[in-house]
Design brief:
CATH class of the largest domain: Alpha Beta
Radius of gyration: 22 Å
Strand content: 15-25%
Number of helices: 14
CATH topology of the largest domain: DNA primase DNAg catalytic core, N-terminal domain
Distance between the termini: 56 Å
CATH architecture of the largest domain: Alpha-Beta Complex
CATH superfamily of the largest domain: DNA primase, catalytic core, N-terminal domain
Helix content: 25-40%
Structural class: alpha+beta
Number of domains: 3
């Protein structure tokens, strides 16, 4: 089934914010929460002039057709069908006005019903304990990023390469119903699947008492359409590496990084560090815990990094503290890039 190019062009000319509204996405001042990850500060922006959307955290984006694909998990033709029916965009087929039809369209054109997800600490703890570091993860962490093996071990970073094997192991251990309720295992048109795209790292989040409160994945594959990061949590997103505060004293030097990979590089360099999940996700309740330390940050050398630093700076000034900006050398984009270059030069 081929959809004429002129119809595709018309669909991609539909006002993207109106398409978002039809999809149930709440847009305020051209911004919205991202539907691809655990988002508490709007990370999607809509450009009405370019008629596109983009998430500045996970990188998804595109025009109206791509928005429908990303939001509903449909293929290109299914997204076109939905848009054509919602906005009365038809094309002439002979003497009739038609839009391509397919069998069993109702199951695709009905909005997916979100399942209630429960962060089951027992299940997620089992996942972390059984997600050993496999070759793709070792290659990424140690060969490419040159991270300290002791840091990786202490933070209990693991990996999943074969998603089917993990789904089967989870179901065997806890049963299908429990796994579905956790959100780790989901049901699609082709059966059960693992929530996190694989191969991936699994990065556990702990509170200061050592309780597992969230798990973030870092995709290691080559599919550019897959989000790089995904997150599952028992509550709002928290700071990464909170337990380090138990070993610090008032006035000790502490770095705040933008993202986990920079945090791992700082820790591998022997520095104390915690991480905000991204430039747009600032866990306010945890940031307050940092005001009595000597705070430093290496802002990423882009507009998002500068914005994140200025936001943090205003926050700490309002709480009678300060965070100092450190300057990266010219030609590096972030601390992780800087760390890698240092290791390769010294190695």
């Amino acid at each position: 089934m081929n959809i004429p190019q002129n119809i595709i062009s018309r669909l991609n000319e539909l006002p993207i914010e109106e398409v978002a509204d039809r999809l149930g996405i709440e847009v305020r001042r051209h911004k919205a929460l991202c539907f691809k990850h655990d988002d508490h500060n709007p990370s999607i922006t809509f450009s009405t002039s370019k008629n596109i959307y983009k998430c500045w955290v996970c990188g998804v984006g595109g025009g109206p057709i791509k928005l429908v694909q990303d939001k509903e998990g449909w293929n290109f033709q299914e997204a076109c069908i939905w848009l054509g029916q919602k906005f009365n965009v038809w094309y002439l087929d002979g003497n009739n006005r038609n839009f391509p039809k397919r069998t069993s369209t109702q199951k695709y054109l009905t909005k997916h019903k979100e399942e209630t997800v429960i962060f089951n600490k027992e299940v997620y703890t089992w996942l972390i304990n059984n997600a050993t570091l496999l070759d793709p993860a070792k290659m990424f962490l140690f060969n490419e990023r040159h991270l300290d093996e002791g840091v990786v071990k202490k933070l209990r970073i693991g990996s999943v390469v074969n998603s089917l094997n993990m789904v089967n192991a989870l179901i065997k251990r806890f049963g299908e119903d429990v796994c579905l309720k956790t959100g780790l295992v989901r049901r699609g048109n082709d059966g059960l699947y693992f929530y996190f795209y694989t191969p991936c790292l699994l990065l556990p989040y702990y509170d200061m008492d050592g309780n597992l409160i969230g798990v973030q994945s870092r995709y290691l594959g080559t599919n550019e359409k897959v989000p790089r990061f995904q997150f599952m949590s028992s509550q709002k997103t928290r700071l990464y590496n909170l337990p380090i505060l138990n070993s610090l004293r008032r006035g000790d030097k502490l770095y705040i990084s933008e993202g986990i990979t920079d945090c791992l590089a700082l820790l591998s360099d022997g520095l104390n560090a915690v991480a905000i999940p991204s430039a747009t996700i600032l866990p306010i309740e945890d940031l307050i815990l940092l005001k009595n330390y000597e705070l430093h940050m290496y802002p990423d050398q882009d507009s998002a990094g500068e914005k994140a630093f200025m936001t943090l700076r205003r926050f700490f000034i309002n709480h009678y503290s300060i965070v100092r900006a450190e300057v990266l050398p010219s030609g590096v984009k972030d601390y992780c890039d800087y760390y890698i270059k240092k290791q390769e030069t010294n190695g």
